[in-house]
Amino acid sequence: TAGAGFWRVQGSIQENWRWNAGLRYEHNSVFGGITVPEVGTVIRLAPGYSLHLAVARGFRNPTIRELYLFPAPNPNLRPEHLWNYQGTLELHPKPELAASITGYYADLSNLIVTVGRWPAIQLQNAGAALNRGFEASARWRWSRRVALYGGYAYLRSTNLPPYVPRHKGVYSMEFDLRRAFVHVGGVTVGRRWADTTARSELDPYTVVSFKLMIPWGRATWFVDVDNFTDTRYEVVTGYPMPGVNAAGGLVVRF
Predict the structure, then answer these.
(1) Beta strands, E only, 15-71
(2) Which residues contact 184 (CB under 8 A, 6 or more apart)?
């Protein structure tokens, strides 16, 4: 059995300075009780520029499926715990341009990971880790009918879990052709550990996708093409991902 209660409060010190705080307590008949605080603030530096700062504790108890049910149950799993410290700078200097950058420091313990390959997969706690990194993104409406988006994430960890990349980038272009909408996007994923021993790695990969939408009255025709560069890659060791694949259809709104 489990029960929880929480309390939240927010306010402002000045017109350009807001703050919030919260506290949650949860008790679990298996894992005991835990108190989870959080506090944050938002400071408006200038029109279009703001700074967000936050400190929070987090946790996740193992689910019933992870503890007892197929596949790969492990009744000895322990709850995940986390202390996270982060700051975000948001920039919106012009209506057509928006960007943000976030830096974070996270102290984790008992992260639950899946290792191995079917049928010998296992769930286990990966131990403690200190994660440091940043994430940045920007969206620019280049013209009335063209928009560009890009994002990048970097992670440095003392105990990087399997399949989690150190580097990841996403990017896209959107075109408004009046009678049709086109989206071209991609994701680039860096090297990842293939197991908990940190001895073998999965190769980096880039996958590009394409989407076409054509409105027609109350309906919209669409065509999706994933991995149209036919990249050969694996997200999990031993399981090759599909090559070029496509889908199409019609969405009708009443």
Answers:
(1) 17-28, 32-46, 49-60
(2) 172, 173, 208, 209, 210, 211
Chain segment 180-239, per-residue pLDDT in tens: 999 999 999 999 998 878 889 999 999 999 999 999 989 999 999 999 999 999 998 888
Distances (CA, A) of 144 to 95, 123, 174, 236: 12, 49, 11, 41
27 SS3 class: strand
- Chain centre distance of CA 76: 27
Q: pLDDT, tens digit, for every residue of 5-36?
A: 999 999 999 889 999 999 999 999 999 999 99
Q: Which of 198, 197, 141 is nearest to 166 (CA)?
A: 198
Residue pair 110/81 in contact by the 8 Å Cβ criterion: yes
* Two tokens, residue 241: 């991902």
Q: Does the global pTM surpass 0.70?
A: yes
